[in-house]
Amino acid sequence: MLAFLRQNAPWLLAGMLLTFSSSFGQTFFIALFGGQIREDFGLSNGEFGGLYLLGTLGSAALMVFAGKVVDFYSPRQVGALVLLGLGIASVSMAMADTLTMLVFTIFLVRFFGQGMTSHIALTAMGRWFDATRGKAVSITNTGHQIGEAVLPLTVVLLIAVLDWRQAWLIFAGVITLIAIPVLWLLLGRDRVPQNTSSAKDTAPIRQWTRSEMMHDPLFWIASFGYLSPPFIGTSIFFHQVYMVEIKGWELSWFASGFSIYALVTFVFGLITGYCVDRFSARALLPYFLFPLAAALLVLSLFDSPWSIPLVFVLLGLNGGGFSTLFGALWPEIYGVKHLGEIRSLIVALMVFASALGPGVIGWLIDYGVALETQFLAMSAYCIVISGMLFGVSKAFIARQARETDLAKQETSIV
Q1: How many CA atoms within 13 Å lie on the side-chain side of 138?
Q2: Would you call 116 helix, strand, or coil by DSSP?
């Protein structure tokens, strides 16, 4: 691991910087300002969720077309422009004074933050690494965990002494004055892909296009699993202020749980990366939703503040497995030639799910459906989908074996 880190430090650090920067557009971060935003604009939970849905849907639609730019331009160029856009979006959040501007700002921070920054980082890792892809993706994803560990308490402290809009201006300065120059420096030299062969025969025989992937039934079945954490996890974090109120918890106590979440996600992400390189992402696919199901069960049944650490541990197990697993799964199955185009659709679907969750949950809250009841239903859903993913995993493995055997036969004939 140390040799791997030394040899690839600039590119891994750049990936971590991008995934950390995505935090400014992630739901857990925006939701920390949820109470102040709802108060300033006079919004209910459902109304704020609806506006969030509208802005995020716009970012998902744009991702489908804009995401493939990473197939044609370097991560250095695209990353710097995206971070600049995120900095401008942060200034816009500080200045938003109408509902129209609020929706447009949500669109900007979601597109440049949640969507493009992570997309650039993980597409680059999928293209730059092969036999060590799981390790590279898991290390790159630690940027997410650093953001989740540092930013919630930072926000709580800032809004205790400053106006929430001033806090956004501070973060805009961090992005534009620090993140962009550091990224430009780290990616001064492009990486030539290495380790392009693997003893596990994980390199795909076909280099799928996005159109071909969209006609693959296995992709859509697997998406039921892939889209569950964005829908559910985003809903939990988006409505955390409301959940804390009905549970009788202190927001600062709940926010401190993000440090536990980040640590567990970091550790389990590295473990998952090792397992992906050892066994393949396809083989691990059916297992990642079980911790999420357990976390939802705890949230639905217990009100004690002592359940907070357990919930964040379980969410961390899911988060570490999910981020690393799916960062490696798509290039493993569909190849790297059109990876930017492929991931742009996948990220768009993820953004759509993350938008739909808060909106749906918020509307159900407004209509009197208890949050605990919703958590229980989502837990049952995760268990059912996990059962389906066992069949999908076997089908992916069988198809890869057939393509590998066919390629060997063609090679022997030649």
Answers
A1: 27
A2: helix
Burial class (CB in 10 A: 0-12, 13-18, 19+), 290: middle
State both tokens at 146: 């650093």
Nearest to 219 by CA among 370, 58, 383, 399: 399
**Other C-beta atoms within 10 Å of 203: how many?**
17
Q: Is the dihedral of CA 19, 21, 27, 28 positive or negative?
A: positive
Q: What is the pLDDT of residues 344-389, one digit of tens each?
A: 888 888 878 877 887 788 888 888 888 899 999 999 999 999 999 9
Structural domain count, the chain: 1
Instruction: Fill in the amino acid letter for 392.
Output: V
Of 68, 46, 108, 129, the C-alpha closest to 360 is: 46
> Would you put residue 73 in left (φ > 0), alpha (ψ -120 to 50) or beta?
beta
195 domain-assigned: no
Task: Give a yes or no: residue 74 inside a domain.
Answer: yes
Dihedral sign for Cα 233, 383, 339, 345, please.
Answer: negative
Residue 163: give its domain's CATH number: 1.20.1250.20
Quote the domain boundaries for residue 145: 11-187+201-406
Question: How many residues can be counted in the chain?
Answer: 414
Write the pLDDT tens digit of every residue in 206-223. Answer: 788 889 999 999 999 999
Closest CA to 199 of 404, 8, 406, 413: 404
Per the domain annotation, does 193 fall within a domain? no
Note whether residue 412 is domain-resident.
no
